[in-house]
TrEMBL record:
Family: Belongs to the universal ribosomal protein uS9 family.
Protein's name according to its UniProt entry: Small ribosomal subunit protein uS9m
Domain of life: Eukaryota
One Pfam assignment: Ribosomal_S9
One Gene Ontology MF term: RNA binding
One Gene Ontology term from the biological process aspect of the record: translation
Keywords: Mitochondrion, Ribonucleoprotein, Ribosomal protein, Transit peptide
Alphabetical list of SUPFAM superfamilies matching this protein: Ribosomal protein S5 domain 2-like (SSF54211)
Protein species of origin: Cardiocondyla obscurior
Amino acid sequence: MAVSTFIRCTHFRRLIGLSNNAVTFFSDTSQRLLQNRVVTRSYTTPIEEIKDIDEINSDTKKMEKKISKAMLMYLQRAKEHDQFMKKEIAEYEIGKRYLANMMGEDPEYFTQTDIDKAIEYLFPSGLYDPKARPIMQHPETIFPNRKEAEFDETGRPFHSMFYTSKPNYYEALYNIVDKIKSLNDIEDSFIRQGNLHKDQINLINSTWLLNHEIEKQILEPISDSEYNYFITSLQRLCDHPLSKHATDLIMKYRKILTIDSDQMIIPPLEYDNTGRPYIKVANCMRKTARGEVTIWGKGSGNIIINGHDITYFEEFHNREQIIFPLIFTNMADKVDIEATIKGGGPTGQSGAIRWGIAWGLRSFLDKPTIERMRVAGLLTRDWRIRERKKFGQKGARRKFTWKKR
């Protein structure tokens, strides 16, 4: 065991280049440490590096100076808006929890529908206009969205139509014109091939967005004339023979109407002894006029009112009121009308007969046409009546002339 240990130590000394003498081992190591002295290093920054740092700082200052005033104002307004929205959202969440606790519900599963029902229960209101009633909604739905920065830090605008003051509006108009041109190219190619066919979009059950709805969508205010021009341009696109290819662009500015005609109970047609179909509509009312309308199928367009023809009404606009439902549904020469009316004046009587004709024509028409009538307002009864005179006044709203002396 001792021999093997001695051999290992000897081998180790040979590897490190030392003699067998321990004294010489320590002396050699001390000499090597003295020869390899540690060189001290200065940690002060050289002048060249200081110059480089100054140049970098000056460049950053120049970059800060390049930011335009418009960008600084935008960043400031954006910061204020974000702080305002955070505050409003926090208050909304607190109010939502309080409201859920008042109604005995779990705040975590208290939806917007539950909030609306709770507000309607706790704050009953008889105001007719929904906008005048108390509401509680998320701040993001109440406060309009803000437009993002339209220019970079140097003030250069991103949008090519920035200097029109309404870039989103004019970009939408440009897209409409561009789509019309592309449809014209497709139409020309079909004509050259001799395979032209109409493929127009079906706009039933939808209507154009209103002015304020388009403003929310494009995030820009537009005037009434600009709105009318915009809708006219879209209508021109819809009238194109191949407008169905632009469905995505058109429906972007239309809203779908709820189909209520499917829920209507339409009475079936009745038949007389000769097998002629007819439908009778009672309780035709408008103002103080009351009447009854009978529509006969397999007719030729005869209109009889209290034993007279349509000349029963002297004014042309009253005659137009009666004819309008027949022209709208292309039934002017297919049915006969018999009406008995009493009370009221010419306007009330013609309005009552018009509603009775439109209401009775449902039994002769298909569902798409009935829906078109509903959208046009032909199936809506007009409940307006003359407002009564008030005591102490000259009329319903008019006051007596006030005299100081």
